[in-house]
Amino acid sequence: MKIKHVFAKQIDFPMGGKVWNPALTFKAKEIVFIFVETDTGILGVSEVWSFYGSSRSIVDTINKDFAPLVVGEDPHFIERIRERIAGLTPIGTLEGILVNALSGLDNALWDLRAKLLNAPLYQLLGAHSDRVYTYASGGLYGRDKTIDDLKDEVGEYIEQGFEGVKIKIGGASPREDLKRIAASREAIGSDARLMIDAVHAYNVPEALSFASKAKEYDIYWFESPVSLADNAGHAEVNSRGGIPVCANESLYGCRNFNDLIDKRGTEYVHLDLCACGGITEARKIAAIAEAHDLPCTIHSANTICLFSASIHFAATLNNCDSVEYHQVHQWLRDYAPESTMALVDGPYVKPLDTPGIGMEFVTPDFIDKIAAELRNGDQE
């Protein structure tokens, strides 16, 4: 059996600039879907998005650069395929884009391999649990959004069954953000987790100053407080801020995570399957975290496809803290099996017991159909 086709397709989901975080105003969510097809017609699928810049570069990287290296390979030889592609990085000028694209390819290969072996992905990888703790991620800044609106929003998450809520900070003045934190804590009660995410908005003194004021609200973690590249700064905030640091969803590669962890720049190892290098790399990162007695938490803010993959991966970890259950980025949810995002036993989600990640509806024709509908204004 050989890989016959490798290709990517893009969908732009309009968001109208109505919500934002400290780094981005979401005018659209550009999602790239990656397909790997065997000569027997079995299809593996995954998705990625560009953390900054146009996703078109990822599409071109998959279609023009990766496909010639992958077509003809045995789909079970994932590490060998990755090794061929990794050779591009030292001579390329877009290392981040290459890793982003490689993450998507790797995830699609794992979905394909699980389908070939007729097994749910979490069982193929080696299951640890059949359910995963999730938390509600929201609390974005919004047009005409008031403190009372925020209270209503996070309070509703608790009513839905969640026991943890994450909100954004760093996009307003410290005084305003502290009001938002206080209001959120009041709305969700004293027993629920409250997490704050600065999306790298501060320098070290600013982060320490903010943490000293925010810690009275019993913050579960302080996410991405300083520059992504500043592992030492994360360590300083982690050791002196009085709130455990969570880092870093945009980081990639086990070596980079090893440096962050070795410096004790985080208490919650935060990774994203479409940024860190894919499932293969994520397993190595999780092992490094385990060796340091640190839990992992999985970032997920794309379509239902990434969420399902993240639940499957998290279910294999004995050091999993949580998976992000985003309340804004849930594209294509209406097309997926209802159980994909169903809460059970409070805030837990079960991985689908179907081959791969269970996203059989995500086909090239389906992507073309949705993309056309969005271009014609038939969908929100």
Question: What is the count of structural domains?
Answer: 2
Approximate strand percentage: 15-25%
Q: So what's the CATH class of the largest domain?
A: Alpha Beta
Shape: globular
Instruction: Examine the coordinates and then state which fold CATH places here, giving the name of the CATH topology of the largest domain.
Output: TIM Barrel
Q: Summarize the helix and strand pattern as letters.
A: EEEEHHHHEEHEHEHEHEHEHEHEEH
Helix content class: 25-40%
CATH superfamily label of the largest domain: Enolase-like C-terminal domain
Radius of gyration: 20 Å
The largest sheet has its strands arranged as 5-7-8-9-10-11-12-13
Structural class comes to alpha/beta
Instruction: Please state the oligomeric state of the protein chains shown.
Output: single chain
**How would a crystallographer describe the biggest sheet?**
8 strands, parallel, barrel
CATH architecture of the largest domain: Alpha-Beta Barrel
State the gist of this model:
By secondary structure, the protein is of the alpha/beta class.
Summary keywords:
single chain, 380 residues, alpha/beta, Enolase-like, domain 1, TIM Barrel, three-stranded antiparallel β-sheet, 12 helices, globular
Q: Which helices and strands, and how do they pair?
A:
Elements: E1 3-14, E2 19-20, E3 28-38, E4 43-49, H1 56-70, H2 78-86, H3 95-116, H4 121-125, E5 132-137, E6 141-142, H5 147-160, E7 164-168, H6 174-188, E8 193-197, H7 204-214, E9 221-223, H8 231-240, E10 245-247, H9 254-262, E11 268-271, H10 279-291, E12 296-298, H11 304-314, E13 320-326, E14 348-349, H12 364-375
Parallel strand pairs: 5-7, 5-13, 7-8, 8-9, 9-10, 10-11, 11-12, 12-13
Antiparallel strand pairs: 1-3, 2-6, 3-4, 5-14
